[in-house]
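Long-time lurker. I teach an intro course on protein structure, and each term I like to show students one example going from raw sequence to a predicted 3D structure in token notation. This year I'd like something fresh instead of my usual example. Would anyone be willing to generate the tokens for the chain below so I can use it in lecture? Attribution to the forum is fine with me.
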Amino acid sequence: MIQNFLRRPQTVAEACADAVRVLGALSVIIAAVWFDLTDAGVLAFALPGLLIPRFLGTRAWVDITFGATLLVAAWSNVFDLYTRVVGWDLIVHFACTAALAMVACLLLRRTGTITGPDFRSAMIATVLITTMLGLALSALWEMIEWLGCTYISDEIFVEYEDTISDMAVGGLGAAGAGFIIAFVPLLRSAAVGSAP
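-- Reply from a regular --
Happy to contribute to a lecture. Here you go:
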């Protein structure tokens, strides 16, 4: 994984993926200067996630899509799009949970944790595990929102129906991500330690 992370970009797309990571770091600075520290904290929370695809050795388009999804989710909070735009919350939960579950599943797949004796069983396992990862990540996110509302700011919107719908939509996104993983090669063929 370290070799994947230290590998120099080989294509323009790989350089763009690294540019998304730089944009993430700049986003924290921009939020700290022109917005407030809570917004900077939300953007900083996304920074570790921006590095994961680089460690995994994903294809550049996966890396860019993942990073952009995390940044859109974080900036949506800064600009309060979750309450201003009807349905935006569900769209972001669908996309972000799908992206996070996909990367988590790729990590498990790359380490050989999920494999099967034939394509069909591996596909079923991939879809089920990705969906479960997505639901688990959704539950964790909702708990973080609740903690934030309870102990940091009552401006964080937490309501039972919102929580359930966010988790359900996130689970659907994760299931879709599982099918993508099963049928689309997402790791670079030259990625160190990548699964066949």
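Some talking points for your students: The chain has one domain: 2-183. Helices lie at 2-6, 12-34, 37-56, 60-78, 81-84, 88-110, 119-151, 160-183.
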